[in-house]
Amino acid sequence: MAQSGSDTRQRILKAALTHFAVSGYHGVSVPSIAKDANVSIGSLYNHFESKDALVNTLYFEWKTVLKRYYIEGYPAEASIREQFNFIWFKLHSYADDHPEAFRFIENHMHGHYLQKHCFELEEEIFEIGRMFVRAGQEQGAIASCSPQIVVSIFFGAFVQYFKDCNAGRATWNLETSLFIKEACWKGFSTSP
Amino acid sequence: MAQSGSDTRQRILKAALTHFAVSGYHGVSVPSIAKDANVSIGSLYNHFESKDALVNTLYFEWKTVLKRYYIEGYPAEASIREQFNFIWFKLHSYADDHPEAFRFIENHMHGHYLQKHCFELEEEIFEIGRMFVRAGQEQGAIASCSPQIVVSIFFGAFVQYFKDCNAGRATWNLETSLFIKEACWKGFSTSP
Amino acid sequence: MAQSGSDTRQRILKAALTHFAVSGYHGVSVPSIAKDANVSIGSLYNHFESKDALVNTLYFEWKTVLKRYYIEGYPAEASIREQFNFIWFKLHSYADDHPEAFRFIENHMHGHYLQKHCFELEEEIFEIGRMFVRAGQEQGAIASCSPQIVVSIFFGAFVQYFKDCNAGRATWNLETSLFIKEACWKGFSTSP
Amino acid sequence: MAQSGSDTRQRILKAALTHFAVSGYHGVSVPSIAKDANVSIGSLYNHFESKDALVNTLYFEWKTVLKRYYIEGYPAEASIREQFNFIWFKLHSYADDHPEAFRFIENHMHGHYLQKHCFELEEEIFEIGRMFVRAGQEQGAIASCSPQIVVSIFFGAFVQYFKDCNAGRATWNLETSLFIKEACWKGFSTSP
DNA sequence: CATGAATGAGTTTTCATTCAT
DNA sequence: TATGAATGAAAACTCATTCAT
To answer: Which pTM does this prediction carry?
Structure first.
């Protein structure tokens, strides 16, 4: 059961992600993560100070990945319409590439155990969305309202679609996703 | 500390709702519920067979209340537009009247511990939404797509708005709520 | 293995005293105490918040008993000589009546785990000794020096005698004890 | 962080002494010693077979040092009075030169983990004291009693004085120490 | 010899549940 | 029905020790 060594941390993170995504923080036991990672409990605690530290690391890492999805190649010079297409496409890609991570970071009640820097990162990411909305409003392309409201609409719709797919109420595919995207755009844009 | 007896069950349910809404199933201990309900542990177990039975009861009761909100007075004869107004208004009223209950039933990962009849009830409620969508589509008032997708859009938007209010990113009021409702309608309706 | 109920706490305290007296705080495991007390671990934790709370309770209780030994019937009006006889006799009686308790409270390094009120109680008891010394010095019966020094002499001698008996280097009996008492008196009194 | 090698062992012993003196055998973890010694855990185990072996080495070494203090230059031909002055002075010097070591070897409950040769060495050292007492008794200079009792008196007084200084109840200086020495002598000597 | 990641038995503690009163 | 002490399996976490490099 001894391990190759260097990838221990990654194996722990991978196993932990799966467990937390499925059962939530309190529904997961550290031994079960260790077992799934094929690592001893002691080893897990050599890599992460506590269960708490482990979820926080996980959350921060995957929110950071999401942030990178949004930021890298963001078409700041393109039209608002295209900016929205980009954001939606990235959201979709992230959920498609890393469904467990998306489930983990969006599906939970992230309670008392998340540290400040995690909440701050979450806010940074929402701020990316709000910046897009503000730009659209300045150009008159997006309806006038509190920017977060627009984010609520399209992000909420996307998350619910993702959940419905997990629950078997909807089918996961790009076509449907783009249909929802268009509906959202129609909903908050000012185009006739 | 002895209690009148008849309302014991209600006090337990109330305390349990608060706890589960805040911390999730696994994050709550039965003794803490009993303490908050001002009831002995033994008494709690006289009223509910197990922690499992308690959440299931709670979930079923509050989902039933939500179902009643939708069903009672549903304007089946009115226009699709008005039917949507009604659904949205009920959703809003429920979240407004019973914020903890809404948080509890919508905000969590309801995992393995929910029993079949709870999932069935959830599905029944979604079905109310889908029936409305189908009716709208038959009349040509709602865009043609899988009915659940439309539900995802407006329900997802609403849930996200509710969450954002809880997180302090948005402000809870009817005006904003109606703004989101209109955006959703514009999004999935066929009106020019 | 179910227990009569009301004396659980006492059984825990008794078992804990024995264990701590023999092995010290860190050398004792909570399960071993529970087992010896014929009590389940959970039950132990119903009665004491933590291992820490348990030692503190134990320490405080037994130091309080020692304090009572000194205080009750203290012959404040008698001669200094007789006051010393009284103190010594009480010290001896305590160690004789409760050898494990004496071993526990005097033989250890009571480190970080003792709470303030325990240290304060210890100081109160030393203060009883110092008050006796001051009275003796005012009467010219005890040599002039910092009062604690006199306490160090007789208390230290007694504790060492007690330890030596435990180690089999000396024999525990009143006669020897009184011999040491007389030596101490000769040592710090001013009598020719 | 690699070390010169030869002094590794010394650094380990030094760090271990400090830790054991403060927290006792069971209150100290091997990794914490290694860290403080600036040595890897593996290296520590190259030098000492086990935690057990480490304490035993430490105990034996420092008791040996104490023994040397007593033996080297012992004035066997001088008067009993001067022999006592020598013993006391050496005790004081040892505690003054190596306070941590003195705390370590005298302040603890040295339980099950000490090996036979450590207990034997302890007994040898007590025997030095008892030999002095016997010589004094043969000369009629020390009161007649079991020799260990006299040792209990002065050694106990000294240890208590040392502890009181550590606890802040007394002040460590030679003058006070000599005062206690004189009191002890008056206590157990036969001089008028 | 030096390193430090890995191990897993053992520690403290929690908690769903039972049951005698 | 109400009570809450008792239970013990399981959780989070520690730590002496090993071993491949």
So the answer is: 0.91
